[in-house]
Design goal:
Oligomer: single chain
Largest sheet: 5 strands, antiparallel
Number of helices: 0
Helix content: under 10%
Structural class: mainly beta
Shape: elongated
Distance between the termini: 27 Å
Number of strands: 9
């Protein structure tokens, strides 16, 4: 598990390799990840946007950004935890992701970034 705290918001990431799949006549490695967002601050916050850099050793870096996460813009009171699952397809058997969430402090309406630590996406090592 990878973890990082920014301005009292703790991000925890767990990754899983889910095998291979064909998309558009290409073989991809399928990865899933679970992210927990824990509000350890004393303020109520709302996640408004996400920004990702997805690194695939066989392709240029992909940028993904947009509103919310998995179709939601969760509000977290102090000590609340919001967890969601998502995934990505890589051409390579190794890559990584990192990024940030844009959040707003609902007490003073100040926007801030919460950094998502870099996490590795790699296939398990095969051994005889």
């Amino acid at each position: 598990m990878i973890q990082q705290i920014t301005k009292g918001i703790k991000i925890s990431v767990v990754t899983h390799y889910n095998g291979t799949s064909f998309r558009e006549e290409k073989l991809y490695h399928v990865f899933s990840y679970e992210i927990s967002i824990e509000n350890k601050s004393s303020n109520t916050v709302k996640l408004t946007d996400r920004f990702w850099k997805i690194y695939d050793s066989l392709k240029p870096t992909e940028i993904v950004s947009g509103e919310g996460v998995v179709g939601q813009t969760p509000t977290l009171k102090p000590n609340d935890i919001y967890t969601y699952n998502s995934g990505c397809f890589l051409e390579s058997n190794m890559g990584a992701m990192k990024g940030f969430y844009t959040m707003i402090n609902l007490e003073n309406y100040e926007q801030f970034k919460v950094f998502i630590p870099t996490f590795q996406l790699t296939t398990p090592v095969l051994s005889n």
